[in-house]
Fold this sequence. Notes:
With 166 residues, this protein is α+β, with helices and mostly antiparallel strands. 21% of the residues lie in helices and 33% in strands. It has helices spanning 10-16, 77-85, 113-117, 133-146, and strands at 23-37, 40-51, 65-71, 90-96, 105-110, 124-130. A three-stranded antiparallel beta sheet has the order 2-1-3, with no helix packed on it. Strands 5-4-6 form a three-stranded antiparallel beta sheet. Strand 4 (90-96) and strand 5 (105-110) form a beta hairpin. The longest helix is centred in the C-terminal third of the chain and has 14 residues, at 133-146. It is globular and about 55 Å long.
Amino acid sequence: MSHINKPKEIIPKLQAMAKSNAVWPIGIILQPIEKKVGRWREDTFEISGVTLNTEHQQHSNENHWHVMNLDLYRDERSDYRFNLSSSNPKLFIIVEQQSSDAKPKLVAVTASQTAVGNYLDGEYLVLSTALPLPIQAWMEAFIGRHGELLELGRKKRKGAGRSNEQ
């Protein structure tokens, strides 16, 4: 009923951005800042806001407003548990670094520190902010539905990997 008056091409886009058990669309507001690095100044970004209601787009500056899906994956459950059990759980936003006057290009949003590690090579800017409580509860429910992922080391045969000294 809610999309009777909306054009047909918008309906699939809205459905793709709907919250589910493993996907949550998040509104992210990035603020350009000038950072001093040694004697030089660098144009970069910082997170000035995270919203769980992605309909605030019309009230925000369009250049700084982004909507990205936070996707949860079953094989990252131990990473989520590690993040949630820390004293300050974080939400990580990965931004592709471009020229200073270009609109920032968001690459990913994640709650996994392991996934963030793949982007720490200098071509990407990794930003973090406090993980909102509703997302923490949603992640806890995801882990509860799929169970804890326990990473157990394989049992090796006795003496494997050791030199045979006599």
